[in-house]
Amino acid sequence: MHSECACCGSQDNGEDVVAHLEFQTKNMGVLLIPDIPHTRCVNCGTALSIPGSSAKLVDIYINSLQSDLVAGLPVGMFIPRAAAIALASTYDPGKFNLRRFENLTYRVKIGSSWWCYKPSVEAYMKTGDGRISLIGN
Ligand SMILES: [Zn+2]
């Protein structure tokens, strides 16, 4: 592998490791994700490349942490899925995309029905992205 480190400029070869990986998320700050195979700079430790299989592990870790955090939000702040969709589709008339909405907002399953986190739905209606911060609130 022959890549220059963007962080320290080192031209040394990267090393393949299975180690924690620092990852900046939009809604949970910087995460230290454990046991991710990747190539890092031998000089400063910055990740140089992350194989697709590892990117998948990162996704799984982030999604699972996000689910845990959403599940811990106050239950009174959730509204039924149908009501959330009705709200959000008034924001996006004509081009409402359910899949996009569900990818960009938070929800939990209670019993057999889905409930959406209201502040997340409201953020989606304002900015088109309901992934508000899940930490430090
Ligand atoms: Zn470096």
Describe, in plain words, how this protein is organized in 3D.
The protein has 2 domains: 52 residues, Ubiquitin-like (UB roll) (Roll); 53 residues, no CATH class. It contains 4 helices and 6 strands. The strands form 2 sheets. The chain has a 3-stranded antiparallel sheet with strand order 1-2-3, with helices on one face. A 3-stranded antiparallel sheet has the order 4-6-5. Zinc ion binds next to loops.
Topology:
Layout: E1 14-24, E2 30-41, E3 47-49, H1 52-71, E4 78-80, H2 81-91, H3 98-103, E5 107-110, E6 113-117, H4 118-127
Antiparallel strand pairs: 1-2, 2-3, 4-6, 5-6
Helix pairs in contact: 2-4
Zinc ion binds at residues 5, 7-8, 10, 41, 43-44, 46.
Notable characteristics:
137 residues; alpha+beta; Ubiquitin-like (UB roll); 2 domains; 3-stranded antiparallel sheet; 4 helices; elongated; binds zinc ion
| 3D shape | elongated
Q: Compute the CA-based radius of gyration.
A: 19 Å
Instruction: Identify low-pLDDT runs.
Output: none
Estimated helix fraction: 25-40%
What proportion strand? 25-35%
Q: What integer is the average pLDDT?
A: 92
Order of helices and strands: EEEHEHHEEH
When the domains are counted, the total is 2
Q: Total number of β-strand segments?
A: 6
Q: How many alpha or pi helices?
A: 4
Q: Give the bound compounds.
A: zinc ion
Largest sheet, strands/sense/barrel:
3 strands, antiparallel
